[in-house]
Amino acid sequence: MHLDVADSTTLPYGWNRYAQFGLAVINQIHDKFTIRKDAQHQLNARESDWGLTSFIPLGELYDLARGYFVNDTCIVEADVTVCRVIDY
């Protein structure tokens, strides 16, 4: 899963954002099995996205008995807090 700065090409030259964020895949049957990962990262024109290469094994995600897909729906949540904005 990846987080990407929206409209990053329209931001001022030298832009920089320090963000804290959480990404989650919701378990719709048993909330205690929801998978959530938190991170913080500095985003800028050279690196306008950030993500996790491994979040949940696909076999686990697609196993209907595990509760991540219910009625053909998988719920993904993202919480983002921009802690610092710098525009040079």
Keywords:
47% strand; elongated; Apoptosis, Tumor Necrosis Factor Receptor Associated Protein 2, Chain A; two-stranded antiparallel sheet; 1 helix
Descriptive notes:
- With 88 residues, this protein is mainly beta.
- It has one domain (2-86): Apoptosis, Tumor Necrosis Factor Receptor Associated Protein 2, Chain A (Sandwich).
- The protein has one helix at 58-62, and strands at 2-4, 16-25, 35-44, 49-51, 69-70, 73-74, 76-86.
- Strands 3-2-7 form a 3-stranded antiparallel sheet, with no helix packed on it. A two-stranded antiparallel sheet has the order 1-4.
- The mean pLDDT is 94.
Give the overall silhouette. Answer: elongated
Oligomer: single chain
CATH superfamily: Apoptosis, Tumor Necrosis Factor Receptor Associated Protein 2, Chain A
Count of helix runs? 1
CATH fold field value:
Apoptosis, Tumor Necrosis Factor Receptor Associated Protein 2, Chain A
Q: Which architecture does the CATH hierarchy give at level 2?
A: Sandwich
How do the strands of the widest beta sheet line up side by side?
A: 3-2-7
| Mean pLDDT reading | 94
Put the structure in a nutshell:
The chain has about 90 residues and is mostly beta strands. It has one helix at about 60, and strands spanning about 1-5, 15-25, 35-45, 50, 70, 75, 75-85.
